[in-house]
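Margin note from the TA: students keep mixing up input and output lines. Inputs are the sequences; the output is the structure of the whole complex. Example:
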Amino acid sequence: MDVNENPWARTEATPAALLARAYALICHAEEAAADLDSLAGSQLVVLCQEAKGTLRDCQAPLDADLMSVPPPSSDLRELLLDADAQLDRIPPADRHPELLLARARLVEAATFTEV
Amino acid sequence: MVTSLDDLLTQAETQVWAAWSPIPSGEGGQEIARDRRDAAVGSWRALRGSAERVLVLTGDGHRLAPLLARLDRVVGPAAAATGVTLDPVQRAASLLGAAADALSRSDGPRHPDAAVENRTLSMLSFAATTTAAYVRLAGDSPAQQRLWLDLAQAARGARVNGEVISSAPSARPIIAPGDQTFAAALVRFHQAAWKALTPTASPSPDLQMIPAVLEMLHRAASSPGGTGPHADAARAWSAAARAWRPTIHTPGPPDHGLREAAGALRLATQRGMTRRDLADARRFGVDLAGDLAARYDTRVRDTIRSELPVIAARRLAEALRSLPSFDGLSPRLASAALRGRWVPLPHMSPPAWTIVSTTTAAAEVYRAGTGSNPGQRADNVRRPESERRPAAPGPRRETPPR
């Protein structure tokens, strides 16, 4: 990748690319949650780690560029909803059964976020 | 066309997947949420019936009994009242019913089928989470929300993830399978974390949950107010957890037991902690957390020294450039950075030093000073036999760079 290229500008929409984006978005959401410096923030950090673990179970690729470069939004709730939206774009035939659990954690995080 | 049990489950999952769509914020949002809540709750009667049939045919009845009892308690009164249903969930229930029919008609003796059981439990967990979300967005009471969230956690926790408890059966604290109290969650987490920290050739990436959970527990223990020794410990663990993120990770096998135990404890802290729960959290922070911290510290040192973690090459290049002694990147690292690759984390690099030093600092919190929590061990706290472990690991084999 060109060092000046923004990895978030990529438009690839294969299941692997969508999983990688979702994983990276959760990583950045985890950072945003840690920045809250509160009990709610630390609960969200754990919830993000649960979701990441489930995505790893689903063979989500870990994209070093996406994880190194901040995404367009830094809003915690937007990051979580965007991660869920990425998973929602994966065609049904390509969805790993465990993805339901990852989504459950994202829905929980986005809905029960007290920030 | 449906051709197999696997296809039926896949189609059911696709339907359950569609049970959630975000509610638009602003005017009218709560009304939409109320409609979805009523429909979601109303669909549970059919979903429970079909899922129960599949679970009874494929799962371990003894292990699933607490979940099935909870399903009866939560779903029974709620589902009868609404009179409306959510189409995708109704379709999922029909597909699961067909799966149960197929299972009951198949020849030969019944065998537990962990894959079918886990997939069914995942569907229940997702459906319960989305119901909880609609209940919350509709403005219902926290108690109503908790009913569904606890059901989601119970379904997740009932999945077949392998043996978690490592101590001798006779020495285990007695915890009922369906016990979702804070104290039970705390014991389960401690057991799972202790087991996860057993040295292996390939540590799990889920080990990073340990500092995050310890931070969360100390934050809970420091409330209200967020000051005092527990707050100091929380900050120390926050730094130790942050040292890994977001571009360093350890490739390795999952530790589902640790992940589930951490998730259950997280939910227990969100449930609204009683005074007794807070006392348990503080006691844990004073007593057992120190042993766990020392074990985690040793494990992290071993992992870093063995250069098992990997780092985004781009991040490593940035870290090296900031060193006064920097005299250019190796061609290999420069190439890896350009290609967006992961590279082994050198144990003498700044990110590795940060991980080791912050982890050691967090573990030192429990050894520091006297007369203060959590620096002082509460030796008068009675611990279960299985929790009495050797206190600290052996002498340090590596000194963190300053």
